[in-house]
Specification:
alpha/beta, Rossmann fold, 7-stranded mixed sheet
């Protein structure tokens, strides 16, 4: 099973994705980078961590190597979320002001790793293409790059679910 869970802000996408795995062992890949100076962000991270089952192992790193190394007998992996991962990649590669080429290459590696992952995988990502066209270059860049990455991940996944107002809608039913 490879599932992509999409949704807007506060749509319930993370909670839905977590519910797909249950309370058994799992690896939770947290892609949001900690910022000690941002109390709101720290509170959001803490709220996510508090609702994870005790049997889950949390990893704060780039998911690509983890997905590539996963074997068929490994516990399922949940990556939350692709939007914060892409933000970090754009930060690291200078993609906000220069060419997003390196970020696109990183995205292609993520898509390949997800498609070849040998354990159950759930990916969470923001759906940002349903709103207005952003006025800033960085906003348009992010929306366009995340939209393209989401489409490529959806192709690599067996299931795709969109959360709207907390209601899951199956876009691509798997097995």
């Amino acid at each position: 099973m490879r599932t992509l869970v999409l949704g807007g802000a506060r749509s319930g996408k993370s909670a839905h994705a977590e519910g797909l795995l249950g309370a058994g062992p799992a690896t939770y890949v947290a892609t949001g980078r900690r910022d000690p100076g941002d109390a709101d962000w720290s509170a959001r991270i803490a709220a996510h961590a508090a609702r994870r089952p005790a049997a889950w192992h949390t990893v704060e790193s780039d998911p690509v190597a983890l997905l590539c190394a996963a074997g068929p007998d490994d516990p399922p992996i949940l990556v939350d979320d692709i939007a914060t991962w892409l933000t970090g990649v754009l930060d690291d590669t200078g993609g906000w002001t220069g060419s997003p080429g390196a970020a696109r290459q990183a995205g292609a590696r993520l898509v390949e790793a997800a498609g070849n992952c040998r354990t159950d995988l759930v990916l969470v990502s923001a759906e940002v293409g349903l709103g207005v066209v952003p006025q800033t270059r960085s906003g348009r860049l992010f929306r366009d790059e995340l939209g393209a990455l989401n489409a490529a991940l959806a192709e690599a996944c067996t299931d795709v679910v969109l959360l709207v107002a907390g209601i899951p809608m199956r876009l691509k039913p798997g097995r």
